[in-house]
Amino acid sequence: MDDAPKYSFVLPAYNEASNIAPMTERLMSVGESLDGAFEIVWVNDGSTDGADAAIDGAANAHSCVRALHFTRNFGHMAALCAGLEAARATHAVIMLDADGQHPPELIPEMVRHWRDGADIVQTIRIESGALGSGKRLTSRWFYKVFNALADTDIPEGAADFRLLDREVVDALNNLPERVRFMRGLVQWVGFKQAQLPYAQEDRLSGETKYDLWRMMAFALSGITSFSVRPLRLAFVLTLLVVALVAVYSLYVLAAIVTGKYLAPGWTSTMFIILILGAAQLLVIGIASEYLARMYVEQKQRPIYLVRKRNNARE
């Protein structure tokens, strides 16, 4: 396309109505400082707070702003994927959040790393006052557990604030899987990568959409998408339980042979029942998670549906 921009800024938004205008203005300012044309792609992930009107207002006011509106809330990963598929950039795509915690003013530095040969410029969040102690702790443990279990390592503090070369974007868009964990996929595809530390800023307004349960689901999705080790650990646990039961059985047999008195009661029986029950439930739970993912993939449903586009030039 002759009128395709050189850069695309992709921003998923869910109930971020008050942040649309200030983020658009900041990105407009940053984009004008770059060495080529740019576009801003807003992906409205089923917002209910008026963000759709705010995004359409930005698209109507600026020809470089494009909007995609989902039919409902499909989730952050789906919105990122939609933005990557809609991005028309010929050179590079920059992904960032809509709440202002990913500073757009860092984009020129990301572009400089890209010009120096990096296909992926991954920002790494450094600890700051904007990050609560609970968030720091859960984030640290997520990366430790993920990297211990998964076959693909993610740098600690890696955020969904990154620059991707057009070739990387095409590679990601061509992946067939439906359950997307973008941080892992970006590492999995390879390519030359540079890391850029940044201090996370305070939200412009509003509250975070990632509560404890969403973070746990996010972590589980990442681990099961990039590792079969939990299945192997479940098998090892089963063998361990069998070994413990065998040892206990030998102890009982030896006690009977030697005439040692064994006090009757429920303690030993309940111990064995609880251990076996816990092991079985764990194995079934882990296997069920993988079966659920296979079920989702087999249905071949799209990961999002677009209700409306604004300023689209497809």
Structure description:
The protein has helices at residues 17-32, 51-61, 76-86, 107-115, 133-149, 166-173, 182-188, 212-226, 229-258, 267-299; strands at 7-13, 38-44, 65-70, 92-95, 120-126, 158-165, 193-199, 306-310. It folds into 2 domains: 7-227 and 301-310, Spore Coat Polysaccharide Biosynthesis Protein SpsA, Chain A; 229-299. The protein is elongated. Strands 7-5-6-4-1-2-3-8 form an 8-stranded mixed beta sheet, with helices on both faces. The protein is α/β, with parallel strands linked by helices and 314 residues long. The protein has 10 helices and 8 strands. Helix 1 (17-32) packs parallel to helix 2 (51-61) and helix 9 packs antiparallel against helix 10.
Which percent range describes the beta-strand content?
15-25%
Topology order in helix (H) and strand (E) letters: EHEHEHEHEHEHHEHHHE
* Shape label: elongated
Integer count of domains: 2
CATH superfamily of the largest domain: Spore Coat Polysaccharide Biosynthesis Protein SpsA, Chain A
* Number of distinct beta strands: 8
The CATH topology of the largest domain is what? Spore Coat Polysaccharide Biosynthesis Protein SpsA, Chain A
Determine the fraction of residues in helical runs and give it as a percent range: 40-55%
Largest sheet: 8 strands, mixed
Q: Spatial order of the strands in the main sheet?
A: 7-5-6-4-1-2-3-8
Q: Could you list the spans in which at least 5 consecutive residues all have pLDDT below 50?
A: none
List the helices and strands and how they pair.
Elements: E1 7-13, H1 17-32, E2 38-44, H2 51-61, E3 65-70, H3 76-86, E4 92-95, H4 107-115, E5 120-126, H5 133-149, E6 158-165, H6 166-173, H7 182-188, E7 193-199, H8 212-226, H9 229-258, H10 267-299, E8 306-310
Parallel strand pairs: 1-2, 1-4, 2-3, 5-7
Antiparallel strand pairs: 3-8, 4-6, 5-6
Helix pairs in contact: 1-2, 9-10
